[in-house]
Design a protein that fits this description.
This protein is 15% helix and 30% strand. It has 193 residues and is α+β, with helices and mostly antiparallel strands. The chain has one domain. Strands 1, 2, 3, 4, 5, 6 and 7 form a seven-stranded antiparallel sheet that branches.
């Protein structure tokens, strides 16, 4: 323990979650009031910056584990006047978030998986819970900050534990003559109904 007049040996207060940490998070979109119905951007969720870039102002709250209640702020690109790269990164992140939240393998191309990757509007993303891979980037002042650039899908070995789900055996694993689902259950998740 260091003395109270020399702080050279005190731990640095970078306050960053280590790069590569996996955590279950909830996205809250901080509304920016920008709508463009021709793009499907309605409800005031999008923000238009001074450069003409359009993005979702994401606030990701860690839900469980040693970093519970910590907030990570990340912009999700929708459009940039400089070209398609930022929007493509944003679309890729949203695809991963939907795969993670809805338990879909990124390799799954079934009609059900394709339906799970569709949203009715940006409001569908507000409140989404998924497993994120936490990264470190820099803010406008050049200071390090946590960011979310990728979601973890069910293909990852730690996904089930982090999402609080247990991997379900294939339906063919049920003993013969036994129903594979409870009566009245369609087997379709609520978002697909």
């Amino acid at each position: 323990m260091g003395s109270w007049n020399d702080f050279n040996d005190a731990q640095s207060n970078a306050n960053l979650i280590p790069k590569g940490t996996l955590a279950k998070v909830r996205l809250t979109i901080r509304p920016g009031g920008f709508d463009d119905p021709s793009q499907g951007w309605t409800g005031g969720y999008a923000t238009r910056g001074s450069t003409g870039a359009v993005y979702l102002n994401g606030e990701f709250t860690v839900l469980e584990g040693p970093y519970a209640r910590r907030k990570i702020f990340t912009l999700i690109g929708l459009h940039s006047p400089k070209g398609p790269d930022w929007a493509n990164m944003g679309r890729s992140l949203v695809r991963g978030m939907l795969n993670s939240a809805r338990g879909i393998s990124d390799k799954d191309t079934s009609p059900e998986a394709q339906a799970a990757r569709r949203i009715n509007g940006l409001a569908d993303l507000d409140g989404l819970e998924f497993v994120a891979r936490i990264d470190i980037g820099t803010d406008a002042m050049g200071e390090e900050k946590n960011e979310i650039r990728a979601a973890v899908t069910p293909d990852h070995r730690d996904y089930a534990a982090l999402m609080g789900t247990v991997a379900q055996p294939p339906s063919s694993a049920a003993p013969s003559g036994q129903p594979t689902s409870a009566p009245g259950v369609t087997g379709r998740p609520s978002w697909a109904q």
